[in-house]
Amino acid sequence: MTSVGGATDGRAAVRREVLISGAGVSGLALAYWLHRSGCAVTVVEKAGALRDGGYPIDVRGTAVEVVRRMGVLPRLREAQVDSRRCTFLRADGSAVASVPTRAVPTRAVAGGAGGTGGVEGQDLEVRRGDLATVLHALVRDGVEFVFDDSVDALDQSAAGVDVAFRGGRRRTFDLVVGADGTHSRTRESLFGPEERFHRYLGHCFALFTMPNTFGLSHELVLWNTPGKAAALYAVGDDDELHAFLNFHRPEPPFDALRSPDAQRDLVATVFAGAGWEVPGMVDAMRDADDLFFDTAGQIRMPHWSRGRVALVGDAAYAPSFLTGQGTSLALVGAYMLAHALATHRDHTVAFAAYEHAVRGFVAMNQALVDDGAATLFPTTERALERRDTLLRGLDTLPSATTRPAHSALTLPAFAPLL
User: Fold this and answer.
1) What is residue 2's predicted lDDT score, i.e. its pLDDT?
2) Under a CB-based contact definition with an 8 Å cutoff, are residues 391 and 99 in contact?
3) Per 3-state DSSP, what percentage of the chain is helix, strand, and coil (rounded to 5)?
4) SS3 65
5) Is the Cβ–Cβ distance between 142 and 84 less than 8 Å?
6) pTM, entire model
7) CA-wise closest residue to 373 among 314, 318, 315, 324
8) Which residue has the higher pLDDT, 47 or 82?
9) 199: three-class secondary structure by DSSP
10) How, if at all, do strands 161-165 and 170-173 pair?
11) How far is CA 35 from its chain centroid?
């Protein structure tokens, strides 16, 4: 803990030293708000640098207010993806419907890479890397960043948290926050194996980039057969596409999750004989150096903290890409955790207040998953025909409106604890 002046009773005020594990959206947003409240913040990230690029993500409802309060809403508006059209295809590649993106009643396509644009002029769709870059620029001069390292072990005591890093260093912090994603090592070290908290949603997906040899521009194309989907997403006029292959599987493929070669083989087997451009996508997946394979799932936990360590974002309450709300929950959760710590000097009280304030919001947004899965990835012929019938009438509908869950939480004013 660091002493700083300013206490009205003549004593030096104590400045919290906080370690954040993970430099993703939730980690960067939390670093901003904790630094603003007077904490000494260190962010450790296992990657060698901030991750740029990446597929587009959505910022909706309450989360838009978070970035507005951070002062970056204008910059994110400038970086907004101009997605104009979404075309749905049958098994043979013929079009079911081609509709304005804003009219599509879905919340995520291509692993988060096909946002719907939300309420036109309000919600945001930006590249994940652009959002991370904007957030990092806010904090890079006031927050310590340690790249190419990670937390190896945590040892809590009444005085703080002794942290052993994989790089060999040891340091002590007042608090530690795991912002290290769905497969959080912080959560595992604190609460046990991921299997205890992971709710598998019956889908696996592969996400990668490939050359844009199709002439696609500012659009998403989604091909479906029962239980299988393939998508190509052109963010702009780039010569690169975001490609996505999704398939239904009753049980998670644990063996494939541990081996990139097994992942490629599994996807190729599942999509063998598929039509449209799928064979070429499978070939591109085999050559891709940025393949990301995972299962669609949620993290559901009875508690998000233990002692002096807390979780935020996907590490605590991943909603899955089927809701399109992962980034928004990360931003809102970071704000609310920092607000609770700025309001309450006792971290135990602060962590409890954070959970109490956010849990209902999380539950509402996680509940969106079933509708998202049914709309984007029907698993039966009947469900697919029902979805396509809906789509064929969308070109006459007004712009989509935001889901009540997106704006179900009203942010309190942020007032740092003096």
Assistant:
1) 55
2) yes
3) 35, 25, 40
4) helix
5) no
6) 0.90
7) 324
8) 47
9) strand
10) antiparallel
11) 22
pLDDT in tens, 269-284: 999 999 999 999 999 9
Model pLDDT for residues 388-407, shown as the tens digit of each residue? 888 887 654 344 444 689 99
238 pLDDT more than 90:
no
Task: Please name which of 189, 152, 139 lies closest in space to residue 33, comparing C-alpha atoms.
Answer: 139
pLDDT in tens, 95-126: 998 887 654 443 344 444 334 333 444 789 99
State the CB neighbour count (10 A cutoff) for residue 192. Answer: 10
DSSP state of 159: S
Amino acid at 246: N
Q: At 223, list the tokens.
A: 């091909």
Q: CA–CA separation, 290 vs 415, rounded Å?
A: 41
Q: Rounded distance, CA 17 to CA 41, Å? A: 6
Least confident of 121-125, 208-212, 290-294: 121-125
CA distance 258 to 285: 17
* CB of 293 closer than 8 Å to CB of 206: yes
Query: DSSP readout, 333-364?
Result: HHHHHHHHHHH-SSHHHHHHHHHHHHHHHHHH
Q: What is the pLDDT of residue 404?
A: 87
Q: Give the strand pairing for 305-306 and 309-311.
A: antiparallel
Cα 309 from chain centroid (whole Å)? 21
HSE, side-chain direction, 13 A CA sphere, residue 240 = 8
CB 70 within 8 A of CB 366: no
Percent of the chain with pLDDT over 70: 88
